[in-house]
Design brief:
This protein is an alpha+beta fold and 208 residues long. It has a single domain, classed as Mog1/PsbP, alpha/beta/alpha sandwich (Protein Transport Mog1p, Chain A), CATH 3.40.1000. Helices cover 28% and strands 36% of the residues. The strands form 2 sheets. It has a 7-stranded antiparallel beta sheet with strand order 3-4-5-9-8-7-6. Strands 1-2-10 form a 3-stranded antiparallel beta sheet.
């Protein structure tokens, strides 16, 4: 995973879970070389050639499937704070699309609450400012709250928070000025293929 992908993943992590403490910085020559290697390793094509999927979890989290322009270095990895890092895929040399399931709405808060806390936490660090305030919208077939964070480095992170089946999710697109339009177009095409897989009924999990 590239440094920018790791940064984006950490910025997406909810403020009630892992700390949002990684600055999205400038890209050095060595980082660009590593990014090229990562694109090859994850088979980035710029087309929706890769089918990513994860089944519903036994804890009640729904599954999902997605057509993506690259493979993901991880699929649905549950972390120590109970959040589940769903995927991160490449959109361009320094651009990524990623998603995180933070946890139950009853524990982590509503999408609106989580968006407000996330924005405040990032701005308090002085690394970025909110350049598009939280706005009601729709994403992957559901009502969502979308907003944009612009970093001092020039990187732009567009985020959406939404809830599904009692779980709160975050989706994000990290871009840079030189590839923003193309990356967002590719992200929209990928997200248009996103499909939820219903959670397993509790009786079935318990063997009833």
């Amino acid at each position: 995973m590239t440094r920018h992908a790791r940064s984006a993943r950490r910025w997406l992590k909810g403020p009630r879970g892992a700390a949002e403490s990684v600055t999205v910085g400038q890209t050095s020559w060595a980082a660009r070389r590593q990014a090229r290697r990562t694109r090859r390793a994850l088979q980035f094509t710029g087309r929706l050639d890769h089918r990513l999927t994860t089944p519903p979890d036994v804890d009640g989290r729904p599954g999902w499937e997605l057509l993506a322009p690259s493979r993901s270095p991880y699929i649905a990895v549950v972390t120590e704070d109970g959040s589940r890092s769903e995927f991160v895929v490449i959109l361009g040399p320094r651009s990524h699309l990623l998603a995180v399931c933070f946890g139950p709405v009853s524990v982590k808060g509503s999408p609106q609450e989580l968006a407000a806390v996330s924005i405040d936490a990032i701005q308090a660090m002085g690394a970025a400012r909110c350049t598009l305030a939280p706005t009601a919208c729709r994403l992957v077939g559901l009502p969502a709250v979308g907003y944009t964070m612009t970093f001092t480095s020039g990187a732009v992170l567009q985020e959406w928070k939404l809830a599904h089946e009692g779980w709160v999710y975050g989706f994000g697109v990290l871009t840079h000025d030189d590839e923003g339009l193309a990356a967002h177009q590719l992200a929209r095409e990928a997200l248009d293929t996103f499909r939820w897989i219903p959670p397993v009924p509790r009786a079935a999990v318990l063997g009833g």
